[in-house]
Structure formats: C-alpha cells, structure tokens
Hints:
By secondary structure, this protein is α/β, with parallel strands linked by helices. The protein has helices spanning 2-15, 22-42, 67-77, 99-111, 122-138, 153-167, 188-196, 217-229, 252-262, 299-302, 317-324, 356-366, 369-391, 419-433, 460-482, and strands spanning 49-50, 81-82, 146-150, 178-183, 203-207, 233-240, 265-270, 294-297, 310-314, 395-396, 404-408, 439-443, 446-452. It is built from 15 helices and 13 strands. Pyridoxal-5'-phosphate is lined by residues 93, 152-154, 187, 189, 240, 244, 269, 271-272, 298, 310.
Amino acid sequence: MRESENEIKQLEKKAILLEPPESEREKIISSVKSYINSYINELENVPSFKKGAVELGKTNFCKPVEIEGIISELQSVFQYGINASSGGHLGYIPGGGLFASSMGDLIAAVTNEYAGMEFGSPGAVAIESQLIDWMKSIFDYPENAVGNLTSGGSVANLIAFTAARDQHEIKNEKIPRSVVYLSEQVHHCVMKAMRIIGLSDVIIRYIPLDSHHRMDVEALQSQIEEDRNDQLKPFIVVASAGTTDTGAVDPLNKIADVAEKNKLWFHVDAAYGGFFILSEKKKHLFEGISRSDSLVIDPHKGLFLPYGLGTVLIKKADAVLESHHYVANYMEGAYEGATIYSPADLSPELTKHFRGLRLWMALKLHGLEPFVANLNEKILLTHYFLSEIEELGFNKGPEPDLSVSYFYFPSMEQLQIPDNEFNKKFHEFMLEDGEIFFSTTNISNKFVIRIAVLSFRTHKRTIDKGINMIKRCLKKTKEHFNN
Ligand SMILES: *Cc1c(COP(=O)(O)O)cnc(C)c1O
C-alpha cells in the first residue's frame, strides 16, 4: 500500500507538468501573441505562393522544447506552399482565417465544451443550434429542418447523400437501377461520397451545361424520361450553387420543378457560393434553393472562417436520424429530456471540437454587415480583374455568376504556339513569381487560369498586384517563345 502511494506521488509530479501554472501560461501566450501579431502584420508583404517541400525527419517527442523554439520551427515549416491566409490567394477556393474565429477556437479548446450531446453540454449545443437556425432562415428552410456543423463541405455532402439514400431506400438490388443526376461541373466530393456510402454501383448521368456552365434543365428532364422508360429509378439530382471551377449557379428553381415533378431528392451543393445569397445583387440567382431537400454551405469559404467548418441542412429529420441516431448503453440517460437533436444524432461524429464557437464568435464580434460588404466587394473585384485582363489581350470566361472565373491568352498565330502550351508556360512563370497565387483548370479541353476571389483580405490593391504580376509573367512567356 505504502509503496503504491509513493509511486502515485512520484507519478503526480510528472503528470502535473501538463498543467502549466499561470506564470508559465503567460509566457506561452505572450510568445504566441507576438508570433500571431507579426504574422498578420507581415501578411501583405509575403508571397502568396512559394514552391518547396518540408522534411521534418523523425522525432520521438521525448524532450520538451521551449515555446520560442517551437514557434521558430513552425515559421520555417510554414514558409512553403500556398499562403492560405493571404489575400493574394486567388486560387482554388480561397480560405479566410478570421482572427475572431481563432479566439473562438481557443476558448472552445480551453473550456473543452462537449459539443456532441445536449445532455453533456447544453450551452455548446444551443449555440450550434442557434447557428443552424440562423442558416435555415437565410435559405428559407422550414423550422423543423435539421442541420449539422461539419468539418467541411465534403462531410456535409456525405451526410446529405446518406439521408437521401435512406429516404429513398436505395439498397441491395435497387442500387444498380438507381440514377443520380449531376452536372459535369459537380465537385468531386460528390462522387467520393457516393462511393463511401455504398452507392458506387448507381448509374451516374452527367447532364450537359449551357454556355454559362450551368446545368441544362431540358437535358435533365429528357434524361429522366429516358431512364424511366428504361425501367430505371431516378433518385437524386445534385445542383451546384457556385461550381468550384467556374462559379456557375445552376438554375435552381427550374431544377426544383423537375425534381418535384419526378419525385427526386433535390440536393444543392452551395459549399462555395451559398453565402452570396446575402448579397442583394446576387440573391435572385438562388431562387428555388429553399425548395431543395438538402443543402451544403461552407462557412470556411463564404464566411471567411479558418478551415474546418461546413454545414449541412436537411428538411427531413427522419432521413438523417435513420443512419446517424444511436443510443449506446453507456449513454443511457443522455437522451432523457433532450429538447433538440444533438449533433451526434445527425452526423457520423460523437465527440467533436466545439467548432460552432468560431462562427458564433465572429458573427457576434463583428455583426453581419462586414461579411456582406466583403461578399459584395469580392463580386466587384472579380469584374474589375476581368476587365483589366481583357485589356491585356486575354480571353475570359462567360460573365461570372459570383466571384470565380477563368482566362487564357489566345493563340499568337505569328508564333504558331498552341494556346495550352503558351498558357501552361505562363502559369509556370506565375508560380515562380508567387506574389499572387492563381490556380488552373480545364474547360472543354482548354487549359485556363482560374481566379477565385473569396478571401476577406483581398482588396483592390491585391488585385492590382495580381495584374502587375500577370504583366511581368506575360512578358516573360512571350520572350520565352520568341527565343
Ligand atoms: C469546396 C467545395 C466542396 C468541398 O468542401 P470541403 O469543405 O473542401 O470539404 C464541395 N463542393 C463545392 C462546390 C466546393 O466548392
């Protein structure tokens, strides 16, 4: 007995090292504080992209390191790749990284509020629930719709498709006869989700697009009729409200008509574009979105949050509960008196980070207005960029619906250089330069440069820097092919 008491005492001496005293905490906080302040202050002056790989080598983590040492290691690790917090990130779908959200994350981590079950943490669950209700009201979803704050759009889509699958009882021999309707520009996470939930054998119909890269609704309707005549089972149509490649918003209201008429589950992936509904100028594009059965939106895109917050909204609670609700023996009592669905009933997760706080904190601290101003500013910046680039002799994509578009330099007949070859070289020079980051894509076999304006740190001066960089790189590319 004595011996074990002694051992406990010895172990406690080591164990309490995980709880630094206030003086120690102050030291760590002050190092982190000066790091993040200088990080943010310097953001305008660092490149948006720097090519390089990071090799950390093996460590066994046996020896503790002082906070200053850790921060300088991070600084060297972080210098490569896309600077995702920079306003100069105009590639893929830019992220944000609101400071207010980082404070929410910090508080969520320190308090370790358990955001999985209402019983354990009614406060955290109420906050997440309030956020979901707010998003339901934005998209005019009914009060009894449910929602979940996920890690991102991919998991949000996964939850929605699982609900659609269960609602339509797509299983066993029904799978290979069930048909999914997508646009050619649908995000790849949709296919991935289908495979994960056991639907890799469904029939996929890619519906052609119009000249604005939006789903051709007549083609959708006739494909459904054809499939019906072939005794197949049309099951779900997935529309995009802001495709990743071109930012196109599918004609949601017309697709809703087709879905309703044919009794399909109507899903809208608005991970990128959804929050543009808050812009008075763009609201009309979203007409019909409230008629969807499920909807995905990503606050870590359209509300500028740090990575790690997507949202799914679903009208039929039962369809979601079918797969996700679970009462384990060790959780008995956890459901008694529950007044709202807990996040764990609506998602594959049980224990999770209280991720809602990062959104709640940002909305509370700033109010909604600056968010909407940012979205409107991004729309105008995209137009400004495209008109500037046209003057430099570039061809551009169709009038963008939101804040994503593309451009390419047209063939220079006198040089006999194929467009794609010229633009690939041009993009290589852009990456080498790195002041502003642009990504690329393929539109009808054409290699094009993409622009996506969605960082809250992108302003007119950022776009002007991008234009200047493009001028530099265009000159270099022309010289390259002239030699
Ligand atoms: C980004 C995006 C996704 C995937 O979301 P993640 O948050 O990256 O998981 C899905 N659909 C669309 C339209 C997107 O833009």
